[in-house]
Amino acid sequence: MNQPTSHSKFSREGVLKHLIQWIAADDQSLNVVECVEFRCLLLYFRETLEEDDIPGRMKIHESIIKTWREEFEILKKDMKDFLHGGYLV
Q: Does 24 map to a domain?
């Protein structure tokens, strides 16, 4: 489980990353980001946050698929290396 750490510099990419992590870890619906009350809550937390800084469900969906593909390629490489003795001691 991730532990809260000190605040990092704000960015749109950071908002997307943290939303994806929360959605995956807490088994949330992608539609949560379309909820007006949820978006208002995020805007409340950061005075400088703009409505356009909060990604919609399609952007989150695309980012999840992209991340999955990247991680799957890493896993395939690791498995190939393992099967070819790359990790044998």
A: yes
